[in-house]
Amino acid sequence: MTTRFLPPMLAVAGLGSQACVQQRPEIEPFLPDVAQATFVLDVDNPFFPLPAGATWVIEAQTPDGLERIEIEVVPDPRDVNGITATQVKDTAYLDGVLIEDTIDFYAQDTTGNVWYLGEETCVFESNVCVDREGSWEYGVDGALPGFQMPASPGIDGVVYRQEFYLGHAEDTGEVIAVSETVTVPAGTFDDCIRTHDASTLDTALDEEKVYCRGVGNVLILEGDVREELVATSLP
Prior knowledge:
Layout: E1 39-40, E2 55-62, E3 65-80, E4 83-94, E5 97-109, E6 114-125, E7 128-131, E8 136-137, E9 144-149, E10 160-161, E11 163-164, E12 171-184, E13 187-199, E14 207-212, E15 216-222, E16 225-232
Antiparallel strand pairs: 1-5, 2-3, 2-16, 3-4, 4-5, 5-6, 6-7, 6-8, 6-9, 9-11, 10-12, 12-13, 13-14, 14-15, 15-16
């Protein structure tokens, strides 16, 4: 799965007429060809910037309690099948108790697309790792990477694969709105895009994520849960 800032169709300022296009099940998701990509060292896509040491905190009030997700760009890169990947640590708590810990791997190509290259994830119960399902890495057991963020995101009707590890990780994304303005506890942000995330493996997955220029992911909506950025070390 992609980065888990965990997510309602609630009103967001500045939606306009371009928002809320449902993913069409008849469209075959596009799997970009990683063999044709050339990668650079830094991830600086304006809608998904990952400078070393940057942090984000996202919170949501859920029926089970207060969920808090702490995200940090790890300074040390990782080799993923010959690609130098940026590592992002993503730790989730419920009422202060650790429930999930993940390291995601990303890399950017020369045209500006951000690729999702895999993850190491674990679900915790009573501080014990009990489930690593969903972990995958490009090049292992046939797993292939996809786009986390297109170079120039726009409303083009393309449903793109974010990952493809058959039977284990099959998330997809689609840009469904642009030029939004969104207000969350961390502030009001302009020039934002909205994606619809789903899965060809898990049909229950139905998320909308809002990414804002220069900041990244600020809002996730799923069902009756609204996950909002409350703090970031980015300017």
